[in-house]
Amino acid sequence: MDYKQLVADVVADAVDNQVSSSDIYAKIETPKTAQNGDLAFPAFMLAKVMHQNPKIIAEQIASEINTDAFSQIKAVGPYVNFFLNQGQVSAQVLETVLTEKDHYGDNHDGDNGVVTIDMSSPNIAKPMSMGHLRSTVIGNSIAKILTKNGYRPIKDNHLGDWGTQFGKLITAYLKWGNEEDVKRDPIHYLVKYYVEFHQRDEQDPALDEEAREWFKKLEDGDPEAVKLWKWFRDVSLKAFNQTYKKLGVDFDTYNGESFYNDKLQDVVDTLKKDGLLEKSQGASVVDLSDQDLNPALILKTDGASLYVTRDIATAIYRDETYHPVMNLYVVGSEQTYYFKQLKAVLQKMGLQSAAGLHHVPFGLITVNGKKLSTRHGNIVLLNEVLDESVKMAAQQIKEKNPTLPNQQQVAEEVGVGAVIFGDLKNSRIDSIDFNLQDQLKFEGETGPYVQYAHARAESVLAKAGKRDYQAGNHQLTDDEAWEIVKLLQSFPAVVKKANAEFEPSVIAKYSLRLAKAFNKYYAHTKILTDDEQLDARLALVKSVSIILKEALRLLGVQAPDEM
């Protein structure tokens, strides 16, 4: 039951619906201290309607409400404070969680609408660095959150597999490359050649011209250029998929930039036909002055296409293929202005899904204070970070629990989970500095801390033996159990909030609060004492285990039963 909605309904009834229940709902607060109840309604909004002092209105409301869902209703100044009936609410919440299990919090808000998610999108022939982590894990978590809210996400890894960088790479490979080296360790050597190109072209500008010529050959279908490009693409995808497998991330489509090559002319033709394409200093642009935006450059003076040309073609393809209700672009915040331009162009073109285009920006990631750059050779490889994290987790597990079975599997779940959680616990718009040792700690705001709380709950349940958790009376009224019950009761609202804001950190921060509340309960309560409330306490522990595991799943993190 949504007790916030119940408060809104009873307040609306008490004032003869002079203000709607939905308007009241929006004003309901959660008091900072338990002394002020579990929910509070500030009566200020009713003063103009009822022509009375808010304090008097609050007293009137408190005196007129009579329902056993609340143990007490008090007017304190202009506030009406509601104290929930702890026994009744705890029984109802635990029964619901134990019945619905991992489906607790599911809703149908999305009405099975398709949402395309443009995410990860690494460049071919470059390794996946820590710089690719954010788009990948944020996009993956958003997809899971959307599914829980009734949407049907389609994850599109829009690979950077076209562009002038391939002219540079082909030039570098033909000048300094070695086929055997590339076969032995493809990504390492392709990056080495790419970095060397940028080091040398500072002294030899002719290299840039040569690279442009090779990319022109690639665009024209030159057999040698196409053969090298396909080779670079194949070995890169193989390496990428090894990393995605470690992260537990998959995709519905890998349509890279090259997929849209034959669709670019249609974009230009449509813009011309609609009278949207204009000439500006020899280039072709779409005027966006009516949106207070700079013109969108569609074709360069030499007729070459740009990123926006491809993104328009991509949006049209997705619109025609999937008929999405939303198009999400999980791309760094430095591209915010660009996506405003893209959306404006698509709306001028009358694209049906344009209104649902959302840029989902995120902040910069640095590693130990250093900014990452492939071009300048400052790369922290994501694969290596994941491997190191698993190695460190394995060492910690060996020290803490040397008899643990499946130690390697648990180390992989904890190590990879620590990296993912270490990103997602932050509001995505914030820039973060990643420190692996900090993220692997079993205390503090870390993935292992939440995973360990789940494993601790499972350990308690294992000691209790097989029981019917849904049998018996689940009324709990002690303060520490009540803190957990309120958190469990709020999970469906947390799921909705995370979806509305495209914000995985809402789930991550919730999981930390629940883990902390459970650890406090575990420390101060003799859970396995054989008394009349044993089943209720075990039902609470089982519910915590279910919801911690589900919260971690929504982040793309595993929840081992033992650690």
TrEMBL record:
Which CDD domains does its entry note?
Anticodon_Ia_Arg, ArgRS_core
**Compartmental location:** Cytoplasm
Q: Which UniProt keywords apply?
A: Aminoacyl-tRNA synthetase, ATP-binding, Cytoplasm, Ligase, Nucleotide-binding, Protein biosynthesis
Assigned EC number = 6.1.1.19
InterPro entries from the UniProt entry? Arg-tRNA-ligase (IPR001278), Arg-tRNA-synth_N (IPR005148), Arg-tRNA-synth_N_sf (IPR036695), ArgRS_core (IPR035684), DALR_anticod-bd (IPR008909), Rossmann-like_a/b/a_fold (IPR014729), tRNAsynth_Ia_anticodon-bd (IPR009080)
Q: Which Gene3D superfamilies match?
A: Arginyl tRNA synthetase N-terminal domain (3.30.1360.70), HUPs (3.40.50.620), Isoleucyl-tRNA Synthetase, Domain 1 (1.10.730.10)
Top-level taxon in the UniProt lineage: Bacteria
Primary localisation category: cytoplasm
Q: Which residues form the DALR anticodon binding domain?
A: 450-563
EC supergroup of this enzyme:
ligase
Query: What is catalyzed by this enzyme?
Result: tRNA(Arg) + L-arginine + ATP = L-arginyl-tRNA(Arg) + AMP + diphosphate
Arginyl tRNA synthetase N-terminal domain ranges (all copies): 1-84
Q: Where is this motif: 'HIGH' region?
A: 122-132
Q: Which GO terms describe its molecular function?
A: arginine-tRNA ligase activity
Which PANTHER family does the record associate with it? ARGININE--TRNA LIGASE, CYTOPLASMIC, ARGINYL-TRNA SYNTHETASE
Q: What interactions and quaternary structure are annotated?
A: Monomer.
Provide the family line.
Belongs to the class-I aminoacyl-tRNA synthetase family.
Q: This chain belongs to which protein, by name?
A: Arginine--tRNA ligase
